[in-house]
Write a structure and sequence with these properties.
Blueprint lengths: L1 H50 L2 H29 L1 H26 L4 H50 L7 H17 L1 H45 L3 H46 L6 H11 L5 H17 L2 H31 L3 H39 L18 H4 L6
Helix pairs in contact: 3-4, 3-6, 3-7, 4-6, 6-7, 7-8, 7-10, 7-11, 8-9, 9-10, 10-11
């Protein structure tokens, strides 16, 4: 019995060993199959990635990043266009603050209290603008009777030119065309009425925009440093130093742009206005000299394009109210002034102030005008110049040298000074 039990146990143990060896072999086979499959997949993936040229991979990496940037810029521009009635007054306020902040600092260095310096700056600006408007209205009113007579004479000259032209028009034909124009004008009276109503609503929005501009300028003069500090704190702590340095450099560029652009606009206005006055001495007086000079001054804030457009207005006035010779002389004056601006003022003064190539200026004005009309053309160059300096400052690490070297209003520590009540 004992011998039989031993034989039975040996047989069982051998059977179990055989079974375990088979299981081990099976598991090893499965592991090897799995490893082979993983290796084949990895080899396939490596072979696919290796089959793509390096240039294509680099181009793909750049492509999706560029598309992301373009999409972000497109969304940002769309938001600006949608909120233009708020964005435009805010940007005008920034330009006005860039103009008035140095003047406020000048007054404070000469012992003016902060509130007085700010009041003098903003009220003085309003007085200057109001004075220009009054001057234009006064000259137009004083020259209105003469303009009416000259308009009638210009119409008679045009009628005589049409009668003697190769078109072979008669008095009856001209009167018929005038009657058709009058009939069309009366038929479109409803359109004109709706247009007048829309102009009224636009005037209301314009008045609201002026108030927003004045209030925004006032608060920028009072607490511009606090506003800039709040905007800086929106960024992560590690990026605040770079944002602060780049923002200060951009502010200096914007301030220089406003100063230089005012000087360029003044030169354009004086040149074209003086030319119109001299031409008037030879042709019995040039009408609307001061309004034309003011229009040139305002139009010159759109670099390169604005002065040309307002100069064309002067040429048209000379053609209508004087004669073709005076118009040619006025066109020569406009071209001469533009040559001085393009070859002297823009390269040596504007170029050193904003560090933007004239070709970039032209295309930025065109793009801004295409996207947002006159406001876009007005803000295109200062935006491009400021962004250029900000990006360059961050990319080259200039903010690490000495961010405080850029002159900005210092943050007041006294609560009364911060409120503008110190030295009252």
């Amino acid at each position: 019995m004992t011998f039989g039990r031993r034989v039975t146990s040996r047989v069982r143990s051998r059977a179990a060993g055989v079974t375990s060896s088979h299981e081990t072999a099976a598991s090893g086979a499965s592991v090897s199959i799995a490893s082979v499959s993983i290796a084949s997949v990895s080899i396939a993936s490596v072979s696919v990635s290796d089959s793509i040229p390096v240039a294509v991979r680099i181009a793909g990496a750049w492509s999706w990043r560029i598309l992301a940037i373009v999409a972000a810029v497109a969304v940002f521009v769309a938001m600006i266009i949608l909120l233009k009635e708020i964005v435009v007054p805010f940007m005008v306020a920034i330009l006005l603050a860039a103009l008035l902040v140095p003047f406020v600092h000048f007054l404070r260095r000469h012992s003016f209290p902060k509130w007085a310096a700010i009041a003098i700056a903003e009220i003085g600006l309003l007085v200057i603008v109001a004075g220009l408007v009054v001057l234009v209205v006064a000259q137009v009113r004083s020259e209105l009777p003469a303009l009416q007579r000259q308009s009638v004479a210009a119409f008679d000259n045009l009628r005589a030119l049409l009668l003697s032209s190769p078109l072979h028009l008669t008095e009856k034909d001209i009167n018929a065309y005038l009657g058709q124009a009058l009939t069309a004008l009366q038929a479109d009276s409803q359109v004109l009425l709706s247009s007048a109503l829309s102009v009224g609503s636009s005037a209301g929005r314009g008045a609201a925009g002026v108030l927003l501009t004045l209030f925004a300028t006032l608060f920028m003069l009072i607490d511009g440093v606090g506003i800039f500090g709040w905007m800086t704190r929106l960024f992560p702590k590690r990026a605040r130093a770079a944002v602060s340095g780049a923002g200060r450099a951009g502010w200096v560029t914007l301030t220089n742009f406003v100063r230089v652009q005012i000087f360029v606009a003044f030169v354009d206005a004086v040149g074209i206005g003086l030319g119109a006055y001299i031409i008037g001495l030879f042709f019995g007086g040039f009408p609307l000299v001061i309004p034309i000079a003011i229009a040139v001054f305002l139009g010159s804030f759109i670099p390169v394009v604005g002065a040309v457009a307002t100069g064309v207005l002067a040429v048209v006035v000379a053609l209508i109210y004087l004669n073709p010779v005076a118009a040619l002389a006025m066109a020569a004056v406009v071209v001469l002034v533009q040559q001085i601006e393009g070859h002297v003022l823009q390269p040596f003064i504007m170029g050193s102030a904003v560090q933007v190539h004239p070709l970039a200026v032209v295309f930025s004005v065109a793009a801004g005008g295409f996207l947002a009309g006159i406001p876009g053309a007005l803000f295109a160059v200062p935006v491009v110049a400021t962004l250029n300096v900000i990006v360059t400052c961050i990319a080259r690490g200039r903010w690490r040298d000495d961010p405080s070297r850029v002159a900005l209003p210092s943050a007041p520590s006294d609560p009364l000074e911060k409120a503008g009540l110190a030295n009252a």
